[in-house]
Amino acid sequence: MAQLPDPISRRDRQRQTREALIFAARAVFAEGGYHAASLERIAREAGFSKGAVYSNFDGKPALFLAVMDQNLELAGAGLGDPFEQPTRPASTGRDLAEQEGYSLEATHGFALATLEFIASAARDEKLAPQLQERLTSVLDRYSELAHRVRADGESLPADEVGKLLAALDQGAGLILLAGGVLPDPAVFQAGMQRLIDPCRAAAEERAEG
Higher confidence at residue 190 or residue 173? Predict the structure, then answer.
């Protein structure tokens, strides 16, 4: 007689519910934007009642932050050495779309929803500190890249280089969202290289020229 599988634990069931809600929320936010998205629609897309959302998240902002956290984790995993691999603006979400099978349209839509959320959360006394935590996490990843890759003896502190890397990357993503203009990949990669290690970048450019 075949042995029946062990029943799923309450913790595992809650984790699966959260994951399903986050997955559905990403699609709904991407489709209509942050403000237009409703918790009823998200719950329905995930196969649950609205009560399931409130059992796992403290409202729509908390659910959006959970989706944002997942995206930041996936995007951060692809932040590599621009001297060793082709580099595109991580903030455009294109690498994330390829890795996770999201359409570029959905990725673009969620990026626009993120801008909506940032504009709203930055004015909210409760949400602003939580948004700041995410920004700090993003800056830390770029600073870690600068510490890991740049040459010794550079006068500009690695943490400041990390901020400049983030500004270049996130700015490129914003330009793409606003006007559909993606920086030339070679120029963008050269810019990242020059910020991290200008001497090495100049030497490689001379060698290629």
Answer: 190
